[in-house]
Amino acid sequence: MIRIAIDAMGGDFGPEPIIDGVIQALDETKFLPILVGDKEKILEFLPQYYIDKVEFEQALDVIAMADAATDALKRKDSSIYRAVELVREGRADAVLSAGHSGATMTSATLRMGRIPGIKKPALATLMPSITKDKTLVLDVGSVTDCKPENLFQFGAMGEAYAEKILNIKNPKVGLLANGSEDSKGNELTKATFPLLKALEGFVGNVEGKDIFNGKVNVVVCDGFTGNILLKTSEGVVSTVFDLMKQHIRKSLPAKIGALMMKKKVFGNMKKQVDKDEYGGAPLLGLKGCAIISHGASSPKAIKNAIFQAISYVESDVNTSIEALLAKNE
């Protein structure tokens, strides 16, 4: 049975939404959650029926969002540190945290270690697309200052992830630039372009709009650009829905039309762009699986992050990443 170490204390709203998400996941699939944190506080939200379905790892310290990322390495009784250590010690197959993302990335990278050959890990996220397949974008915040070698490795990891976990045969990989022509880009992307040609799925430069139109399955960028892209996209989605609501309220025919379309059209559309459907972002390139969720994650997001961790472990994607890197050395 797959064992997942879950930081039960680190989210913005404490243990409650995290435990609720664990319960929802247990109701749908078999796995062993190892709940890391203050056991007394966790038990306040865990119904009696589920107690024998989980394990506990006591950790009385919590890394706050305002703390420095490196604090997690010093505070060895923190829930993030203990959760990561469970994977390092072989007692868990994956770690999941909705706590301090920087602390989780730092702990996971330095304590779990990297896949041989990987210089920097990459945080990957799924973006909605007009096609049936979503688009994987990496990096979205792990490495803000990248070298061409880093972006090449991000492309290789993204290609392997898309094939093994998203089940996309022969995934297409694009390099994010300010134009689709080969000559476009800044110094970093221009130096990365010839390296990415070694990947079978590389199709060249892509623009921001190509993330959502299905032109490629994987988009590669540095973490600074990717993080801005991610947060801008989330803001655009929220704004579009708010504008729709404002205009619908002003017109009776619009209200009637919206009511008729609420379930099939708006419901499906919201589901496609809802970040809770993805749950969290995998940190690719580690010896193991680390899933990082948003601090304000809902129970639904935690549930889907758990499913994502299970898929990651079952797919053995890290072996594919190693093989792809060895092939293109």
Structure in words:
The structure is a single chain. The chain has 329 residues and is α/β, with parallel strands linked by helices. Helix 1 packs across helix 10 and helix 6 (148-164) packs across helix 11 (317-327). Strand 2 (32-37), helix 2 and strand 3 form a beta-alpha-beta unit. It has helices at 15-28, 39-43, 71-74, 79-88, 101-112, 148-164, 187-196, 223-249, 252-273, 299-315, 317-327; strands at residues 3-7, 32-37, 55-58, 94-97, 122-127, 135-138, 173-176, 202-206, 218-220, 281-284, 289-292. The protein has an eleven-stranded mixed sheet, with helices on both faces. It contains eleven helices and eleven strands.
Features:
alpha/beta, globular, 2 domains, 11-stranded mixed beta sheet, 45% helix, Isopropylmalate Dehydrogenase, 11 strands, 329 residues, 11 helices
Neighbour order of strands in the largest sheet = 3-2-1-4-11-10-5-6-9-7-8
How many domain modules?
2
* H/I helix tally: 11
Shape: globular
Q: Identify the CATH architecture of the largest domain.
A: 3-Layer(aba) Sandwich
Please outline the helices and strands.
Layout: E1 3-7, H1 15-28, E2 32-37, H2 39-43, E3 55-58, H3 71-74, H4 79-88, E4 94-97, H5 101-112, E5 122-127, E6 135-138, H6 148-164, E7 173-176, H7 187-196, E8 202-206, E9 218-220, H8 223-249, H9 252-273, E10 281-284, E11 289-292, H10 299-315, H11 317-327
Parallel strand pairs: 1-2, 1-4, 2-3, 4-11, 6-9, 7-8, 7-9
Antiparallel strand pairs: 5-6, 5-10, 10-11
Helix pairs in contact: 1-10, 4-5, 6-7, 6-11, 8-9
Give a short overview.
This protein has 329 residues and is of the alpha/beta class. It contains 11 helices and 11 strands.
